[in-house]
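Lay summary. Proteins are chains of building blocks that fold into shapes, and those shapes determine what they do. In this project we predict the shape from the chain. Here is one chain we studied, written as its sequence of building blocks.
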Amino acid sequence: MKITRRIGASPRDRGSITGSTCPDIFELSDGSFAVIGTDATEALDSELPPDAARADYERIVVISRDTLVRARADIPAQ
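And here is the predicted shape, written in a compact code that computers can read:
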């Protein structure tokens, strides 16, 4: 599995000059997506709706609204 491309604007294009806050979204060679964000598993785990679950190896990651909105145009329809 490899990163094939960035989805949306780079952190620098979104105003992160220092690189200290760099949420990002990438498409992988198998068609999956990888996300760099803030680990909020402890804070949000108990907030999951009853029909949602998380495996022990999965984390709840938060990205800014701006990151996802700017990625929308790059997300393939299928």
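What the prediction tells us: The chain has two helices and five strands.
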